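ARCHIVE RECORD
Type: protein–small molecule complex
Small molecule: SAJ
Source of inputs: curated submission
Record status: active
Notes field left blank by submitter.
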Amino acid sequence: MNTCVIGLGYVGLPTAAVLSKSGHKVLGVDIKKNVVDQINAGSVHIFEPDLDEIVASSIADGTLRASMKIEEAENYVIVVPTPLKNYKPDVSSIDQAVYSLCPYLKKENLLILESTSPIGTTNALLDKIKSFRPDLFENDNPLFYLAYCPERVLPGNVCYELVNNDRIVGGVNKDSSEKAYQFYKTFVKGKIHITDSKTAEMTKLVENSFRDLNIAFANELSMICDQANIDTWELIQLANKHPRVQILNPGVGVGGHCIAVDPWFIIDKYPDRSNMIRSSRKVNCDKTDWVINKIIETAKEDDVIACMGLSYKQDIDDLRESPALKIFEELSDRLGENKVISCDPHLDMSNFNNSDYENVIKRASIIAYLVPHTKFKNRVIKDKLVLDFCGVLNDME
Ligand code: SAJ
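STRUCTURE (tokenized, with ligand):
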């Protein structure tokens, strides 16, 4: 099968790579020339375990190729970003991708949208395509197949989850759902569940909003516990002994490009009904400011503060929407750059006053753990003030 994947980012490139290992001849398309050149040279522009090896081998055996230009294919998969602009979803990259592929689209082709989308986006594509290609419609019915299928992979575990997670497939009609089901069957080992496109779009938004809400509960608890002088971690551990309670871990806020963003897609469309979803966003953002203030209140004039971890979550190098990075930057602004250093073993040493663990612990007087990187675990620190905001020092072995 010839498959064209449009958008070679954190999800598109692994998808293209996994497809190329599952019997597809894949063309990956991206608007960035450096990304295309790098992939064609057999390397990758993002860090994701195992991805570099799969891409190198698929480029070498000719099952994967990258280009800035779309070509004719049987299947098209759109995996482009849909960022927020003033708290409103911006779907212009989807529109751009669809307009670019319209000239190549043929009867019986399958078009899949994977980008996180406001509900109704997939159905609305029918009218957009019709305005360019009325020949692909008969009595308003498309002669091609169109479905929405959200990606649900966890950064850091993408190559595994792409194959093993369950998938939701929502076609604009029954035949489209069936066609998309058959497409995912070629590489997915998890179950594939069929629904309509609107429900599939909402599923994605709800999954991430659900997680945001649950993290907000843990973060709110942590701030209440601080006031009540109760150890949050012990409290959560004890509450979780109840068979129907499963509280998540408090941290320094919620980062990444999904959980901090997707709830707004629902709030934007249903502002009067999204009270809990909106409050969760506020609590998780407030938690970051609370951490900043806590460190500032604690620090004395001569203190040097070590921000331990800068990425948006543990064991990755991804800085997108990272609350830890925001904390580092704001502390540097407010206390002075010479007062704030950082240690993130996953990042380049040349930025963010970043240095290796031993050096940072030696130089700092306050050690503030922001991200629970595995490399920070089980390390005893003596004669320093330690502020553990992410529970990395719990359960020392
Ligand atoms: N976090 C906490 N406490 C926790 C769990 C997470 O503070 O107990 C924080 C993390 O530190 C991080 C943020 O939440 O800052 C998000 O991290 P995450 O690991 O929960 O999720 P992401 O953003 O890396 O990936 C999510 C996943 N969605 C869900 O688990 C519902 C993933 O499956 C999605 O595919 C991805 O968003 C996406 O692309 O939408």
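CURATOR ANNOTATION: Residues 378 and 395 are 8 Å apart (CA to CA).
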